């Protein structure tokens, strides 16, 4: 049973990738046709001015595929804009590889995407055919192979064929998804010798972001201690001094002051615990990531549905980052989204921890408006992760975070 569930889950994930790849393949076909038109026009000498634009179109589609594949497995870095100058652009190794990719993917991506989408559609259509076969003419049975359906027995045979389509979809969809991703995995990564320089530049940027995030975190802790705990402790000291002076003069008043000092000390301890939890939540050690996130979901003011599929523990720093990402995201949902529900899904796949938060609010989330999204991105990139935010006006808002799993 566990094997069957795993196969079904893998086929559903593969179908998601095939649908996304079909969209990218359609764009790649359009880019290929435009590049072919420009190439033919260049033969007559009238298309040279359109070459940079055509290369930028190919680069845009290739970057879309890089982002899609990076959400599924190992990240593929983007090379940046197409170089200026026709000669430089034509000799750029990224451009050459992208031109080869767009030609190959236009065929493989479309075929695998169409087959992968057709299999479950045929499965649903033929499996349910015995329920609605009376609504169509006897010679209009659905499917690739057409035959006359004269009664329920013939319709049941169509249903059996639908079960076969379903089995084929479950069995072949992951292989089709891997085949669809193969051109991009082969041609879209940086050429040998270029990957290292891009990686150095990327690590330099993420190191700077990590230092900024660390400085921001230190300032947050300092403000929390200065504005909260320190003031409470000063109040406790003042009240204790007042109580000492009142012991001889008015013992009843001293008892009241000592009660106030005790309340202030308890508040200071509570604020100190909050600061400590903000550094590294102890609940992660006590209950693990799933239990810690369950606590966040249970205390969220907006109804939250949580799904965690992490069989083994990740590194403490990765779990802490995932915890803070979910905590900050839920805070944003409560404060800014106007949502009636929020879904949180966490799973470990291909050596990466995948976190997604989606709400049905009004959308239009913007990192530049001080909602904490910039802090989330910096914290994620500091661990060599990725964050993708989709929030069109009107919603829904979806945040996808990928973190490499430490051991």
Helix and strand topology:
Blueprint: H1 2-43, H2 51-70, H3 86-90, H4 93-127, H5 129-132, H6 152-187, H7 195-249, H8 251-279, H9 282-299, E1 304-309, H10 316-337, E2 342-349, E3 352-359, H11 373-382, E4 386-390, E5 397-404
Parallel strand pairs: 1-2
Antiparallel strand pairs: 2-3, 3-5, 4-5
3D structure, described in words:
- The chain is flat, with a radius of gyration of 29 Å.
- β4 and β5 form a beta hairpin.
- By secondary structure, it is an alpha+beta fold.
- The two termini are about 30 Å apart.
- It has helices at about 1-45, 50-70, 85-90, 95-125, 130, 150-185, 195-250, 250-280, 280-300, 315-335, 375-380; strands at about 305-310, 340-350, 350-360, 385-390, 395-405.
- It comes from Micromonospora parva.
- GO terms for molecular function: kinase activity.
- Its EC number is 2.7.13.3.
**Helix and strand string, N-terminal first?**
HHHHHHHHHEHEEHEE
Side-by-side strand order of the widest sheet: 1-2-3-5-4
> What's the gyration radius in Å?
29 Å
Largest sheet descriptor: 5 strands, mixed
Q: Strand fraction band?
A: 5-15%
Percent helix, as a range, is 55-70%
Stretches with pLDDT under 50, minimum 5 residues: none
Q: Which word captures the global form?
A: flat
Number of helices: 11
Number of DSSP-assigned strands: 5
Distance N terminus to C terminus? 29 Å
> Which secondary-structure class do the elements indicate?
alpha+beta
What is the residue-mean pLDDT, rounded to a whole number?
80
Keywords:
11 helices, 407 residues, flat, alpha+beta, 5 strands, 5-stranded mixed beta sheet
């Amino acid at each position: 049973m566990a094997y069957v569930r795993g196969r079904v889950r893998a086929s559903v994930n593969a179908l998601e990738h095939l649908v996304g790849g079909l969209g990218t393949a359609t764009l790649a076909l359009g880019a290929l046709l435009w590049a072919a038109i420009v190439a033919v026009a260049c033969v007559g000498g009238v298309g040279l001015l359109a070459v940079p634009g055509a290369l930028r179109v190919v680069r845009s589609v290739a970057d879309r595929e890089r982002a899609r594949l990076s959400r599924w497995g190992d990240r593929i870095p983007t090379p940046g804009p197409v170089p200026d100058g026709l000669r430089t652009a034509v000799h750029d190794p990224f451009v050459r590889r992208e031109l080869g990719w767009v030609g190959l993917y236009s065929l493989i991506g479309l075929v695998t995407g169409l087959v992968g989408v057709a299999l479950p559609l045929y499965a649903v259509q033929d499996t349910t055919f015995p329920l609605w076969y009376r609504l169509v003419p006897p010679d209009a049975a659905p499917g690739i192979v057409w035959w006359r359906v004269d009664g329920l027995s013939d319709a049941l045979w169509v249903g059996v064929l639908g079960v076969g389509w379903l089995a084929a979809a479950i069995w072949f969809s992951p292989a089709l998804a891997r085949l669809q991703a193969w051109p991009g995995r082969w041609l879209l990564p940086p050429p040998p010798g270029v990957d290292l320089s891009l990686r150095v530049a990327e690590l330099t940027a993420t190191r700077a972001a990590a230092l900024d995030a660390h400085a921001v975190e230190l300032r947050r802790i300092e403000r929390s201690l200065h504005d909260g705990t320190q003031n409470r402790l000063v109040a406790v000291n003042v009240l204790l001094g007042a109580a000492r002076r009142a012991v001889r003069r008015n013992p009843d008043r001293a008892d009241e002051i000592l009660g106030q000092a005790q309340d202030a000390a308890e508040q200071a301890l509570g604020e100190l615990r909050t600061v400590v939890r903000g550094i590294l939540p102890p609940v992660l050690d006590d209950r693990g990531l799933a239990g810690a996130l369950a606590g966040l979901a249970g205390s969220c003011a907006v109804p939250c549905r949580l799904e965690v599929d992490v069989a083994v523990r990740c590194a403490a720093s990765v779990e802490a980052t995932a915890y803070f990402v979910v905590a900050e995201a839920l805070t944003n949902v409560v404060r800014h989204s106007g949502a009636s529900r929020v879904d949180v899904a966490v799973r470990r796949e291909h050596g990466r921890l995948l976190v997604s938060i989606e709400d049905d609010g009004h959308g239009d989330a913007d990192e530049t408006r001080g909602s904490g999204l910039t802090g989330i991105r910096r914290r994620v990139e500091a661990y060599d992760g990725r964050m993708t935010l989709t929030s069109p006006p009107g919603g829904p808002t979806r945040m996808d975070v990928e973190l490499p799993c430490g051991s």
